[in-house]
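Researcher: For the record, we're logging two predictions in this thread. I'll number them. Prediction 1 follows.
Model: Prediction 1, sequence and structure:
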Amino acid sequence: MSDEALDQELSGEGHASRTPPYISFATLLTFLKALKTDGVPPQIDKSVLSKLSGGVQGQMKLALRSLGLMEGDKPTDHMQVLVDAYETPEFEAALRERLKATYPYVFALDLMTATPTMLADAFKVTKAREDVLRKCRTFFLHAAKAANVPMGPRIATGSVPRTPSNGTRKRPKAAKVKEVGEEQENGARQEKSATDQISDKALEYKLVDLLKEPDLGDDERPADESRDARADGPGQHPADE
């Protein structure tokens, strides 16, 4: 997949605006340090990015293009300025200039009074997926701190609640387990209650049937039942008379 296709996929748009950097800011600083040591090459290809893994190489190229440090595979004058300023007092101003050019939608906010949610909403103009936007915001905040961009305490110390990429909040797993357990327990209680009701009802029917039976005398009982009753009674047998 080409870098441009990857950028569009991350943005979720066929004509997407450039996705802002979402690599680690420390990785960018390491790259700038290497360029300052070895010099800025005429083009940024795999040999220049060989110390990075394949996936991070693509992310680095997207970050450099987004920051205006590279066009195609060619470094821009802004790249040379930033590399030259690296580890000097001029680096803050050079980086701040790149940030303002890359994030106009963020600097449109009053960063001294804006909230973390306002900052997150500002990034949505890029149309990037939410999981990518979290990394974009992280990169910006670290870069802004390195560039000494004035920011209020809400943004500097606040955090944006995470949501899944489909925009819906996931219920805590523990809550789901608890709910399932409660449903099973309630089901068992209802089943037991129904069983108790059936047992009670059956007993009620038996009692009603007993009450409906006629109070038979010995002469009205079946022969076997009458004989048993006399045998068990207190009287004497005819042979004893």
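Researcher: Logged. Prediction 2.
Model: Prediction 2, sequence and structure:
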Amino acid sequence: MYLNSLFDPHFSLLPLLLAKLGLFGGRVIVGPRGELSAGALQLKSAKKRVFLNVSGTLNLARQAADAGVRRFVFVSSIKVNGEATQPGHPFTADDVPAPLDPYGVSKLEAEQGLREIELQTGMEVVIVRPPLVYGPGVKANFASMMRWVARSIPLPLGAIQNARSMVALDNLVDLLVTCVKHPAAAGQTFLVSDGEDVSTTELLRRTALAMGKKPFMLPIPAFVLEWGTALLGKRAVAQRLCGSLQLDINKTRQLLDWTPPVSVDEGLHRATEGFSQ
């Protein structure tokens, strides 16, 4: 097995991958999740963005092909599809890409470059596009949410009726291992999630339950939050809190005979266990 270090902007996937892969004997690379978070990329030059998320990935893939690696599994991002979905109309793996920020654009460019390398060299490429990944040691916005819940801070999020897909770290790793081993994965692009979409209100409630806390949420209508954040120039914050982002993982389930092994509630329990404010 040929496996490079795999780092998420929020935590490393490598230890879990190594444990799951065990003594699998193929020659495989699991490509980088992303060297910089989406927010960090906003602050970097276009040249730096291309080098980190595109050139770095493609250089690694070319070296892998030269070394005789059979399969390259690339962890991309759902941002390649876009930033939001309409209720009942989830993203699919075969949608026309529509990235809206530099991070999503760089991931798409990396995907396209990998497909070209696949055609040129015969090395199998598998692409996986996850949404928000959560698990032990998660940081950024998800960690902030856990701190709010742990401190019983009143949140104006008690009446949000959106639907968002997420993926527990264990589920993502399980799918990556499946993509390493499954013959039908070669040359495919897959979406991944927990298989259950939740609203922001429901996520907060279930996170509180996992932490043994009572949620303190005020039933403020979503349109009021959207109006208020727009006045403050924070429209993107409202989109993440009130908008929907759903993934259709039927292709992943059917082609790979894969089912997420960890439920949302179990994933939240693992993410919050031992959480320190």
